[in-house]
Amino acid sequence: MSIVPPFNQETAIAKIRMAEDAWNTRNAEKVSMAYSVDTQWRNRSAIFSGRDAVCEFLTIKWSQELEYRLVKELWAFGDNRIAVRFQYEYRNEFDAWFRAYGNENWQFNPEGLMEQRQASINDIEINETDRKFFWDAPGPRPADHPGLTELGM
Predict the structure, then answer these.
(1) InterPro entries in the record, alphabetically (predicted)?
(2) 48-64: per-residue pLDDT in tens?
(3) Are the CB atoms for 138 and 25 separated by under 8 Å?
């Protein structure tokens, strides 16, 4: 199902959940297809462009962020833009666990492909016992798994 602008609350939430589900597969090739060929990205301090660069970036990311689980939530939306807050948990190769907190600003072309993504993210080391995201991964968050608001996050 392709969701194209202009967005309303229902379609913005659906677009976000589709992105969350795709990212939780950790399949860089599949995820990259949601972005325009000439997409522009800023992820933390990394700035790059193009779908191929997105695929390369995500491949490296998920080779370092093990047991990655992501939850996204609508913050705001406009005609062809969506703002998202998100958190994800992962462990590194030394078995240290982290929770990343972030905000994304998305802009879409008329075909519904993301042409611009700006992401600001901070990581905090957590104890494994402080994890909140539990589901079989890789794979989408189950419908009955609480979101950020429900978890008080």
Answers:
(1) DUF1348, NTF2-like_dom_sf
(2) 999 999 999 999 999 99
(3) yes
